[in-house]
């Protein structure tokens, strides 16, 4: 049975890192109004509860679904403005902490876990230079067959609704994104990393169901993000 999920209809996610500033003159409201289908709030380093709360509050008044993507249990916030929690689990992590360890801690300390609003994202981390790769000790030495196999394991063995091909900070290999797309059937394929304009968004969205744009919002601002929304929806 195929279930309907919110991300079935998405083309584009804007990921806001609470630890990074916005360009001068740009507000969170401006970013919410770029046409993106959802906002994910999360980052790998330096995220605190206070910084997370400030971004949630600033985005809450705008009409775009808001998800928290916590990197550790300490920064999880309960907030009615959130549609839910997208929880990374890194399939190619070198440390089991990033596969199930952090998750175990979260469940252990939270007596009132919000299961209805929680979905995991099966990350495959691909850029060895990225913080997320060093942090999780990810094995990024993967070819298209390896990535396709991870995507299949995520979907078929572990029942993951979301497979997230993560090139954070660099544009990925189209052939590998395509292999991941061909390997996934029911799961929604998120692609993130290095998307900086219409063409890069279009090229990855030809294969990925959803493209995730991160640093561009912090480095360039609204018009650049809007161009990626157009590229993703035209593909
Ligand atoms: C990061 O996949 C996202 O988690 C987006 O990557 O910052 O390179 O756009 P960029």
UniProtKB/TrEMBL annotation:
Pathway: Membrane lipid metabolism; glycerophospholipid metabolism. GO terms for biological process: glycerophospholipid biosynthetic process. It is an enzyme of class 2 (transferase). SUPFAM superfamilies: FMN-linked oxidoreductases. Its cofactor is Mg(2+). One of its GO terms (cellular component) is cytoplasm. It catalyses: sn-glycerol 1-phosphate + (2E,6E,10E)-geranylgeranyl diphosphate = sn-3-O-(geranylgeranyl)glycerol 1-phosphate + diphosphate. Sn-glycerol 1-phosphate binds at residues 15, 164-169, 194, 214-215. It is found in: Cytoplasm. Its main location: cytoplasm. The keyword Magnesium applies. Keywords: Cytoplasm, Lipid biosynthesis, Lipid metabolism, Magnesium, Metal-binding, Phospholipid biosynthesis, Phospholipid metabolism, Transferase. The keyword Magnesium applies. Prenyltransferase that catalyzes the transfer of the geranylgeranyl moiety of geranylgeranyl diphosphate (GGPP) to the C3 hydroxyl of sn-glycerol-1-phosphate (G1P). This reaction is the first ether-bond-formation step in the biosynthesis of archaeal membrane lipids. This is Geranylgeranylglyceryl phosphate synthase.
């Amino acid at each position: 049975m195929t279930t309907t999920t919110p991300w079935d209809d998405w083309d584009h996610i804007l990921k806001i890192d609470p630890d990074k500033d916005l360009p001068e003159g740009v507000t969170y409201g401006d970013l919410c109004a770029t046409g993106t289908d959802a906002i994910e709030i999360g980052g790998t380093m330096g995220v605190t509860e206070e910084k997370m709360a400030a971004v949630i509050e600033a985005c809450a008044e705008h009409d775009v679904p808001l998800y928290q993507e916590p990197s550790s249990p300490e920064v999880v916030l309960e907030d009615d403005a959130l549609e839910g929690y997208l929880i990374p689990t890194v399939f190619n992590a070198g440390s089991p902490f990033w596969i199930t360890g952090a998750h175990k801690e979260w469940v252990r300390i939270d007596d009132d876990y919000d299961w209805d609003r929680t979905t995991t994202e099966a990350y495959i981390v691909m850029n060895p230079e990225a913080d997320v790769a060093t942090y999780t000790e990810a094995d990024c030495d993967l070819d298209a067959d390896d990535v396709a196999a991870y995507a299949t394991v995520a979907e078929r063995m572990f029942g993951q609704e979301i497979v997230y091909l993560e090139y954070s900070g660099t544009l990925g290999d189209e052939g590998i994104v395509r292999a991941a797309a061909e390997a996934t059937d029911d799961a929604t394929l998120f692609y993130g990393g290095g998307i900086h304009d219409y063409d890069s968004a279009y090229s990855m969205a030809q294969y990925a169901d959803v493209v995730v744009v991160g640093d561009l919002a912090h480095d360039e601002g609204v018009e650049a993000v809007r161009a990626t929304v157009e590229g993703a929806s035209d593909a």
